Amino acid sequence: MNKIKLFYIFIILIFINNCSFDNKTGIWKNENVTSNKDENQFKDFRTLYSSKESFDEIIPLDKNYRFKLTKLISNFNWKDIYFDQTNNLVNLEYKDQNKIIFKSKKLTKYKSSSYILFEKNNLLINDEKGNIIIFSINDNKIISKFNFYKKKYKKIKKVLNYIVEDNIVYVSDNIGYLYAYNYQTNTILWAKNYKVPFRSNLKVAQDMLVAANQNNNLFFFNKLNGETLKLIPTEETVVKNKFINNLSLNDESLFFLNTYGSLFAFDKNTMTVNWFKNFNQSLNLNPSNLFYGNQIINNKKLLVVNSKDYTYFLDSNNGSILFKVNFVSLIKPIISNDYLFSVTKNNLLICFDLEKGKVVYSYNINEKISEFLNIKKRKVVFKNMMIINNQIFIFLDNSYLLKFNLNGELSKVTKLPSKIKSYPILIDSSLIYLDTKNKISIVD
To answer: What is the pLDDT of residues 240-256, one digit of tens each?
Structure first.
C-alpha cells in the first residue's frame, strides 16, 4: 500500500496594529490574529473534496413565534469538562452583575488547561507540567498540588484529560498513562501505563471509566483498579488532525466519535455495539483521511453530530438520521428544550426547531454587533456559548460577552472584569474562570 504524504503549509502574517475600529469598546481588538487560526482548522479539507456551500442565509424570526422556556438551574458542581455526561448544557442561573467578588493568587506559572472542574467548593486545574492543583474556595488556598511524573518526563509537555468524582480525579495523558488520584488523602489509588497516548475526554459510567487513544481504540476500564474490561479497536488514521476523539453518554448508551469520522453507539451494560455510522464524506476512503467535527451532544433521544460540512440530528436509539442540515457549529452547540442554538463557522447565530426540522432564525453576529454599537463591522473570535437566565451568552476570545435574547436580538455587549483564559463555568449563580495570569476569578 502506497504511503500518502500530506503537506500542509500554513503562512500566518500577524500585524500588530495599534489602531482600532472602535477605541471605546475594543471589541474587535486582535481579531485578525485569532480568526485566521479558527479559519485554518477547516482549511485542511479544501484539497480533499468539494461539497455543498455552507448555509449562509439571514432568516428573520417570525413575529408570531413563541419560545418555550426551560427551568433555571442553580448549579453547584462541574465534574466533567463538558458539564455532564451528555456534553450538553442546561439553562443556568447567574446573578449577572459583572462584578468580581473573588480573585485568587496565581495558581501555576505554567501554561494551564482550558478546562476547569469544580467539586465540593474545590476548583481543579491542571498545567503542561502535569500538575493537578486543587484550590479550596472556602479556605482561599491550594489544598493539594500533585505531580505524577518522574524526572525522565520533565521536558515533555503533558496534555491531561481529566474528570472528577467523589474526591477522585481520573486522568489520562498524552504519554499513555491512566491513573486515579484522591485529592483528599493525597494518594494515588492506581496507575497504569498503556504505552499509546490517550486522545479523548473521559467518561464515568457506573463502575467503568471510558477513554480512547490516538489510534482510535476505545477502552472500558474498571475505575476501581484501572484494569481493562474491554478494548474495541476502530478505524485508525495515519495523519493526526486537530479533532480529538469525543465521548458522550445517556442513560443507556455510550457514543464515540473517532478521528476517522465514525460514530459508534455502545450498550453501557454489555459494552457491545448497537449501531455505527461514518460521517467522513470524502470519496477517498484511505485511512489517512482527515475528519473535522465538534463535541457530540445528546438530549433525551436526540444526538447531534457535526462533520466538516453538515450537522446531523440522529435518533440515539437506532442511529437513523432525522435531519441533515448544511450548517456547522464552530463552537459546541446547545440543545435547550426543543431548539438547537449554534454559532456557525461563517459567524451566524442559528436557532433550529427540533420538532419541525427547520431554521427558526439566522442572524450574522458581526452585523448585530456593528448595529448595536454603531461601529464598522469586523469579525470577532468566539470562545464559548451558554444558555444563562433564558438568554444566549456568547463569550469572545478577547474577554467580551455578547448577550442575545432567545429571539436572536443582541441585548447587551459587555467586557468581563478580568481577562478570560479558561472556558467559564457557573457555580452557585456565579461565573468562575481562570484568567490570563492563572488566577481564579469569581464574578457575580
So the answer is: 667 899 999 999 999 99
